[in-house]
Amino acid sequence: MKRLQIKFVLIGLFAFANYATISAQYSSIDVGKKHEAYRDSLKNIDYDYMFPIWGQKVYEKGFDIPYPVGVMANYIWMKQNIVIDNMHLGFTGPNNDVPLTAIDFIDFGENISTVNGFNVRPDLWILPFLNVYGLFGRGNSKTEVNLVAPINLTSIVEQEVDTKGVGIMGAGGIGKYWFSVDANWTWSKPELLDKSVKVKVLGIRVGRTFNFNHKPESNLAFWIGGMRTEMNTDTAGQLTLNEALPQSVWDRKDEVVADYEVWKTNNYDDLTFLQKQAVDQVIDPLVEAIDNRNGESIIKYGMDKQVQQLWNGVVGAQYQLNKRWMLRSEGGILGNRKSFFVSVNYRFLM
Fold first, then answer.
1. pLDDT, tens only, 153-196
2. 268, 279 Cβ separation under 8 angstroms
3. What is d(CA 148, CA 150) in angstroms, rounded to the nearest whole number?
């Protein structure tokens, strides 16, 4: 007998300061002989629930649709490079209070963002092939910014982050293979920033599901794909030097000050008038505070920040124990964005 399988798959993403998670849940029909009895039992189901819309008609055709309501619990880790531009700095010390000033002569080395945390993701199947969901999470982020000039130092800032967002996914497939397109929008509020960071995530995935012959409600799914992450670029906030600088900078403060004096001697005369003002009003007091170990001085900042690579590759897998419980994991493998997440999903009838 000719075998035909048509699958609808849910892939969901969570973005928190540039990272995402994935969810996979699918509806399928298998006209092969092995699951003929199970398929016939689906056709006789009296489905009187509101969601998904057309649920009764789908069952009548022999599709095994997922339970409409789900709750996922996820753990996520992600590390990626970031690009900083349009830098503005201000400084408040014992004798200084300088507002944000353009600093366009700063040279950066490699800047790295690392995040990890937990989130909860409730979702609802509106249609058998269309899912909507919310995202609510909390975690922490670590941002490492490496300055090369005019000051050679590393700033490491760790902070708690709260996240909320919404998403939508549509998918389909023919045969044993399926594809999905997923998009979500999240707003993450780090404790040291003045406003939330908006993150947009787009995921495209292609996969295959392997059904168990003697347990039709169970299966294994594997996929590959790509994920695009983009965040709003403007970031502003303030923190003390003790919060911004690791102990290693204070331990080598004499070297930091000496390197700055060398840079200033070689470059100051070539700066524009506005750049010299920035050096005199912001950079000089900042270096002086480091030299005097004045860690309570406040540095104010504004910048445009974006991920270095918008796209990265992903691979993932899911084990569906039954129609209520699923376990899944995904990792980012291509590009400079590395990620890992693990998840458990519980589904139920409304």
1. 888 888 899 999 999 998 776 766 788 899 999 998 887 777 78
2. yes
3. 7
d(CA 12, CA 85): 31
Sign of the Cα torsion 121, 124, 125, 129 reads: negative
Residue bearing tokens 């760790």: 158
Set out the domains of the chain in order of their start, with CATH numbers.
5-78+116-140+162-232+312-348 (2.40.160)
**Cβ burial 232-243 (10 Å sphere, 16+ → b, else e):** eeebebbbebeb
315-340 as b/e, with b when 16 or more CB fall inside 10 Å? Answer: bbebebeebeebebbbebeebebbbb
Nearest to 161 by CA among 301, 17, 22: 17
Q: How far is CA 47 from CA 32, 307, 349, in A?
A: 24, 46, 10
pTM of the predicted model over 0.90: no
DSSP per position, 132-176: EEEEEEEEEEEEEEEEEESS-EEEEEEEEEEEEEEEEEEEEEETT
At residue 65, φ and ψ (nearest 5 deg) are -85, 155
pLDDT tens-digit series, residues 35-72: 667 666 777 787 888 888 887 887 777 677 788 999 99
Q: For residue 28, how far is the Cα from the chain centroid?
A: 30
Widest CA span in the chain: 86
